[in-house]
Amino acid sequence: MNTGRDEDALTRGLDELDAIRRRVVNVVGHALRTPVTTIAGMANALGTADDEATRTMLVDGLTRNARRLEGLLDDLLLAASVSTALPAGDPETVALRPAFDAAWRSIDGTGDLTVLGPDVEALVRPESIERIARAVLDNALKYGHGPIDVTCQTTVSGVHVEVTSIGDRPSEEEVQRAFELFYRGEHAVMAAPGLGVGLSVARELARAEGGEVGLERRGDAIVATVDLPT
Q1: What's the DSSP call for residue 157?
Q2: 152 forms bridges with which residues in the sheet?
């Protein structure tokens, strides 16, 4: 009998489960606290506002933060493979260059985004490619330094996109764990708040469209790959 060994394995398993639980509570709690607190404060202020300009400003702020909260919850559901959170509608032919340009602006990327290769199109739901592009570009911003290049090309089965950033980060462990739910590498934690589900959401969206998202290190470069059908 290996009772002692079994007990040790059970203890390790429980410790790992507790560590995951604490990580989830910590990450989700911090990410949701800001919009929830902001909404509560604005709602209280709206109740006592006595001029139209202030009320309009507060309503705009409430709407903006409610949408942010909705987006965070959608990301959580998608990362957990809840299909009801997938974008609705039918796939459309979407040009990828303007989609990545728009995503770059939405995450406040500085300067112009360099998009190399032909003007390719994918057959996807527009919201899916918007969110996929934001996720891989945001990841490149957090982990790389210097310029970010996006390279598009056609393949036998569709289109292939590579988002390349240069830097000595993330570590090999961070690359291997990049799609693990709620995992945030050291550099991401220092760079900005977040849930640690961006790449997981991007992969779920890509797979729902018949594609895939990956991440790999090539020398000094970190490369996110996006494959989509046409």
Answers
A1: S
A2: 161
Residue labelled with tokens 């594609």 = 211
- The Cα 133–Cα 96 span in angstroms is 9
Two tokens at 5? 């060994």
Distance separating alpha carbons of residues 59 and 39, to the nearest angstrom? 10
Measure the CA–CA gap between 73 and 86, rounded to whole angstroms: 12
The Cα 43–Cα 62 span in angstroms is 7
DSSP designation for 170: S
- Rounded to an integer, what is the distance from CA 123 to the centroid of its chain? 21
Whole-model pTM: value is 0.67
Phi, psi of 82 (to 5 degrees): -85, 105
What whole-number distance in Å separates Cα of residue 225 and Cα of residue 218? 12
Q: Is the pLDDT of residue 40 over 90?
A: no
Per-residue pLDDT band for 193 (boundaries 50, 70, 90) equals low
